[in-house]
């Protein structure tokens, strides 16, 4: 029982060691990370997609803003060119005098913000007309000026290279054209156009918030206008320390004006028609995505809150779902420890409910089964104890029977020897009786001669007296032997009765053993066979006892008759002896009583004949008694052998009963670990 309890503790310890975590923790540890990962993936994809969409929209918006600004600058440049073309056309066809030309040119003074100093004209021969009143220095040579050199090369009004005005700090470029007025002189019309208006357009007309613009002269890569004063007047080069400017310079040199992302800046380029200018708009991508980044922060916070809420809801849902599973787990653990007392609650109609109902049914079945096993083990233990007691009693009875058989063999052996002695005595008696008969015959034949031979008769009578004394002694011995035979027969009768009682007890024990074996069922089948054999042996013993009883009764009856006859013979012999002694004493009166003596002799002869018959009967009886003794000896040997078999079988029964008892005890100790109440 201790080993069973230790095994139960070991099993409980093993279950505790194996149980490293609950299904609730595993589900939470699985589902919550999946939820978090899903939310992170969704938010990452959403943010990435939003970033892509916003970037594309920002790029489109920046491009549109760039085009719009370029269009504004282009319109401004075209508007100025249109004025210049009109003036040029007028000067070429009006045939103005110099004074008229000055008057005409004076109209443009302060008329236009872009060229407030108006329009002036110079020729190769040094002629210079300027309505603003500016008088060049003496060393001023018109043909050597940049504006004249540019203007003389083309008849259409064209913007020249920009230069920085030291007085105003603004970039100025010359709009020049060769006049075809028919004078034959290389006259050039020119106007100094300030980029201030264009710069204002570049710096203030961005339709995209936080975007900035550059106005670059492509031929020199010079920044003419910029929102950032630090950039203005810089020359773009790939070696610029500013990564943005270096990147823009690289794109300009490759003449790739497509929108691009340059060192974190979204850049859009748009050439301005009719000029050598390039309008560049840029905006930092982080600025474009700042709202998205802020939104991402809000989304992350919201995601964390959502994850917390979902985690809490998931944990509560898992707790609700796993609560019956945990209850079932505790029940199953208790079942593994042999405890079938827990009650399983069945609620709902899902798979867990089906599992709960199945376990509940299983517990009920196990309770009934264990209860039946406990009951059967108790019955088996009780029956094994009874079987052990019966087998021990049977063994004791068999040993007693064996001892009785040994005693019976001894008594029968003594009886045989007594019968042999009786046979010898009967033989002697028959011889004596025969001799007595012969003597009686001679006495009867010579009775008539008694008187004449009285002396001889006295002598003969003395011999007869001695013979009668011998006969008396023999008859006394025979009576004693027959009495011993009677006592032996009584002892044999008592022993046979004892054997009969033992056989009845054995038969009763065999019947009880058969009943117990039937109760034990399959486990008692072998015991039932042994009990059946014991029953058969008891029946055989009972039959043998009955046969022996019959023989002993017959022997007793014969012995009784023999005793009676022997007593009569002894009595007659005593009387004959007395008469013979009397005859010897009163031999003198024989003659007077010879006739009476003759009659007595005849009677004596008849009695001697009877004694002879009795002796013959005793001899025959002793022979029968010897045969009966042999039969008794044989039967006792058979019973002794059967008693030995009964002892061996009873030992086997006792051994099997002990094994059955040990098995029942082991079964009881095994089922003790189970609790059903």
UniProtKB/TrEMBL annotation:
SMART domains: HAMP (SM00304), MA (SM00283). Keywords: Membrane, Transducer, Transmembrane, Transmembrane helix. GO terms for cellular component: membrane. Coiled coil: none annotated. The keyword Protein transport does not apply. Residues 319-371 form the HAMP domain. Residues 376-633 form the Methyl-accepting transducer domain. PROSITE patterns: CHEMOTAXIS_TRANSDUC_2 (PS50111), HAMP (PS50885). This is Methyl-accepting chemotaxis protein. It comes from Velocimicrobium porci.
């Amino acid at each position: 029982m201790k080993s069973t309890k230790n095994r139960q503790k070991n099993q409980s310890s093993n279950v505790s060691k194996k149980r490293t975590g609950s299904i609730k923790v595993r589900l939470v540890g699985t589902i919550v990370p999946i939820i978090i990962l899903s939310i992170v993936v969704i938010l990452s994809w959403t943010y990435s997609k939003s970033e892509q969409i916003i970037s594309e929209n920002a790029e489109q918006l920046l491009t549109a803003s760039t085009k719009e600004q370029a269009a504004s600058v282009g319109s401004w440049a075209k508007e100025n060119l249109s004025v210049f073309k009109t003036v040029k056309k007028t000067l070429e066809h009006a045939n103005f005098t110099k004074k008229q030309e000055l008057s005409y040119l004076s109209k443009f003074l302060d008329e236009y913000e872009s060229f407030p100093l108006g329009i002036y004209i110079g020729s190769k021969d040094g002629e210079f007309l300027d309505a603003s009143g500016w008088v060049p220095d003496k060393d001023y040579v018109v043909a050597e000026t940049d504006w004249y050199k540019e203007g003389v090369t083309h008849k259409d009004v064209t913007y020249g290279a920009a230069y920085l005005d030291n007085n105003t700090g603004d970039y100025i470029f010359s709009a020049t054209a060769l006049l075809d007025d028919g004078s034959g002189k290389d006259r050039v019309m020119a106007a100094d156009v300030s980029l201030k208006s264009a710069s204002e357009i570049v710096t203030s007309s961005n339709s995209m918030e936080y975007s900035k613009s550059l106005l670059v002269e492509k031929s020199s890569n010079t920044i003419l206008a910029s929102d950032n004063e630090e950039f203005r007047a810089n020359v773009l080069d790939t070696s610029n320390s500013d990564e943005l400017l270096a990147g823009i310079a690289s794109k300009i040199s490759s003449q790739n004006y497509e929108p691009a992302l340059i060192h974190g800046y979204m850049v859009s380029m748009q050439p301005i028609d009719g000029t050598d200018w390039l309008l560049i708009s840029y905006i930092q991508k982080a600025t474009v995505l700042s709202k998205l980044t802020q939104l991402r922060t809000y989304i992350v916070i919201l995601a964390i809150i959502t994850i917390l809420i979902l985690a809490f809801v998931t944990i509560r849902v898992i707790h609700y779902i796993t609560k019956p599973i945990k209850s079932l787990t505790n029940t199953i653990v208790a079942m593994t420890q042999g405890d079938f007392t827990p009650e399983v609650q069945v609620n709902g109609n899902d798979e867990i409910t089906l599992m709960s109902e199945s376990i509940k049914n299983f517990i009920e079945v196990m309770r009934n089964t264990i209860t039946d096993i406990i009951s059967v083990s108790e019955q088996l233990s009780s029956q094994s104890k009874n079987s052990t007691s019966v087998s021990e009693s049977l063994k004791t009875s068999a040993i007693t029977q064996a001892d009785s058989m040994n005693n019976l063999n001894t008594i029968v052996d003594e009886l045989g020897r007594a019968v042999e002695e009786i046979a010898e005595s009967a033989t002697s008696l028959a011889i004596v009786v025969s001799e007595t008969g012969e003597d009686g015959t001679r006495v009867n034949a010579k009775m008539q001669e008694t008187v004449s031979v009285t002396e001889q008769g006295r002598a003969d009578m003395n011999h007869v007296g001695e013979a009668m004394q011998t006969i008396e002694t023999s008859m006394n011995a025979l009576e004693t032997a027959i009495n011993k035979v009677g006592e032996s027969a009584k002892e044999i009768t008592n022993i046979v009765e004892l054997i009969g009682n033992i056989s009845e007890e054995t038969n009763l024990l065999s019947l009880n053993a058969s009943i117990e074996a039937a109760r034990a069922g399959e486990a008692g089948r072998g015991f039932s066979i042994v009990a059946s054999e014991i029953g058969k042996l008891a029946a055989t013993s009972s039959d043998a006892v009955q046969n022996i009883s019959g023989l002993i009764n017959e022997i007793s009856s014969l012995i009784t008759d023999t005793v009676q006859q022997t007593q009569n013979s002894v009595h007659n012999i005593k009387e004959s002896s007395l008469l013979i002694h009397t005859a010897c004493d009163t031999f003198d009166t024989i003659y007077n009583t010879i006739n009476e003596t003759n009659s007595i002799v005849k009677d004596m002869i008849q009695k001697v004949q009877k004694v002879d018959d009795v002796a013959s009967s005793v001899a025959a009886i002793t022979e029968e008694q010897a045969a009966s003794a042999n039969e008794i000896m044989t039967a006792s040997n058979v019973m002794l052998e059967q008693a030995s078999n009964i002892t061996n079988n009873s030992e086997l029964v006792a051994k099997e009963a002990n094994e059955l008892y040990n098995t029942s005890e082991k079964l009881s100790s095994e089922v003790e670990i189970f609790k059903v109440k």
